[in-house]
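Fold in tokens:
===
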Amino acid sequence: MADLRFKGVGIHSIAACVPSRVEKNESLEYLIPKEDLEKTINNIGIRERRIADKDVCASDLCLSAAEQLIEDNSIEKESIQALIFVSQTSDYHQPATAPILQHRLGLSKSTLCFDVNLACSGYVYGLSIAYSFCTQMGCDRVLLLVGETMSKITSEYDRESKPLFGDAGTATLIEKGEYGESFFSLNSDGSGADVMMIPVGGFRNPASIEAFEMDEDDKGNRRNGFQFRMDGMDVFNFGMRVEPKDIKGLLTFSGEDIESIDLLIFHQANKFMTDFFAKRLKVAVEKVPYSLDRFGNTSSASIPLTIVSELYDKFPVREKVILSGFGAGLSWGSVLLDLSRCKISKLTEYQ
């Protein structure tokens, strides 16, 4: 693992935006037999998800969240020196989306901008990059925009993925200041790249007419080559293998113990899995907030979305918080930080 330690950098504020359209998993009887549907919903812990309209991108949701953050906290745009956009559902293959967002937000043309293509670990990785920039001369504030519209790349006939994924956009402002220490653990294992992937559309497997044809696997999932696919059991085994171990390693690195942690916020993948992680780590249930019942798995956006939706007017004690994400890559990461000074905006819906 890559262990990183920072001091004098922290999170100033966080905002999040979700689409207004709600899709309930109870409507999936066309895909999952009625007798199995309620069991599936209870296992994954997801009853409904937010779905973006056809013409709404992850960048639009992030833009709305950023505007809310800037307005709520009276942020001077000139104080932002960098903008990082983390997503696997960017506007285009080329150009990067971050400069487009810089322009739409009205930030300075001297703003450092780039995209990061990571999934469920993306928020933790994005924070580590933003923290790194804020340790440098000439960079006092970084705007981290993390969002996904997974519904656009998920097949309507995929029993494994369709009940899971929702859409969201988030904005986090990282800055220099009188902040204590933060500790990161970042990891990857590319041997599992095929566990979660979109096989067609890049340059390894370029787009073709044939790739639009639906194929069916031995579990009855139907997808075309441009749609997300995953092996649910491999994902489950991957999470079980790396998550508790990574968090224990982070605690050792930081010199903390699990009893001292105020909150543990997991990437919102699957409630059965994350409940198991918490049990393995011996973390009290009341220290593990969830948002996936109402928003589903929003990939890289799920951790900041959970912070906004669950910590806005609850969990006032949050000096020692662990954030942990795992997913496609394979990639996983955890961070121990202080959110006691973080200003959290009320969750908004995209209009």
About this structure: The two ends are 41 Å apart (CA to CA). The mean pLDDT is 94. The chain has one domain: 1-351. The longest helix spans residues 232-254.
